[in-house]
Amino acid sequence: MHNTYNIQGEDNFGDYCEGSLEKKNIERQTFNFSIEVWLFVNIQMYRFFLFFAFVVFYMTAIVPAADIGVKIVNGDDADIADNPWQVSVQMKSGDLKHECGGVIIDNKWILSAAHCYLFGPKRKSLWRVGAGNSMLSKMTVFHYVKALHVHEQFQEPFGIENDIMLIELKTPLLFGLIIQKIKLDDDVGKNYTGVLCKVSGWGDTNGTEEAAHCYLFGPKRKSLWRVGAGNSMLSKMTVFHYVKALHVHEQFQEPFGIENDIMLIELKTPLLFGSTIQKIKLDDDVGKNYTGVLCKVSGWGDTNGTEEGTTSPDHLQVIPLYIVNINTKGCFISAAENRKTRICAQGEEGKDACQGDSGGPLVCSAGDEKTEKLMGIVSYGHNCDGHVPSVYSKVSAYIDWIRKTMNKRGRSDKQKRQKRQKGQKRQEGQEGEEGKEGQERQKK
To answer: Where is this region: Disordered (predicted)?
Structure first.
């Protein structure tokens, strides 16, 4: 995935060169003309060298994010019953189609990446969430979006920090065997380096770098988005929910955001939980170290991992990954990023998340815990080949934002209902008074 970065502020590269060398040699009047010319030429070359070195240095800190690819390559077909919290976030650009992954954390709340909102439509009516099937083509459970809650500190258009978002559904999911919520990791300080995880999704399987972040390049109208759930096969997915609102993190910066890459998709109607649609528990242990923990990532993203074009699977893919130390060589996090909001994970060579898996879940069972928890949200990576770790938005770092956003919407809806009820009672009271007055006039 190619991202273009804007270097903030003026490019006063000359300021880096105006030192004693220039002042002592150019300003002295005792030099003859030929020496002054020689000095001028060489100083200009020196200034150019410093300019070039600065650009190279700056790009060295940022370039890893430019090679963003969020796809699952060389994964295995996944059963939705083993990943019942996985959803397909779909947007309408022509036809409704899978664009990002998402994770069920409650019956009306989906957790995803803020960059999905950045490249997606801004109208929530263009979004929907599909659940309850491994096959996109067979997905039948769809919920539409009530609101999209993007993290306040996700900075668009140049953000990579805080790449997290909550999607609020219009109607609740019905939990069952294939639709379930997931437990969130809330141990912020725990070190999970080395823990095996899994990432899942229906993203691009090729590994090319032409993909864009979901929200940024998607339609901005929420009516063009939908969420599919409840089936491992995209072609068999029948559960679709449309979007009530897209809550992109407030500090996610579009159009080239990486910071605060998180978003909540609020559905119009609740998901019906069952065997293939479930919410997932969120990790809320901010301080816990999960290095070395085995995890998994799933999705319907690109499965090719080459430069020959993308290959999006119909069947949900899943691969195992281990959480690695954030300072591991090859974990491409720019100098500008907040490492406390990131997780790095890596699996076998040739296996990685890829284009189309953005926003999908990194799910882990840490230590003696049998309950799987959502540790990360697919954000970005490098070439989809597994040679270096991929980067995920750390769920526990955003747990307060997630809860605040969901609770705020809940209070807002309650206040609206109470206001409507008061209005109805007032209207009924007025109609009652008018009826009594009419009856009294008739008696007279």
So the answer is: 406-444
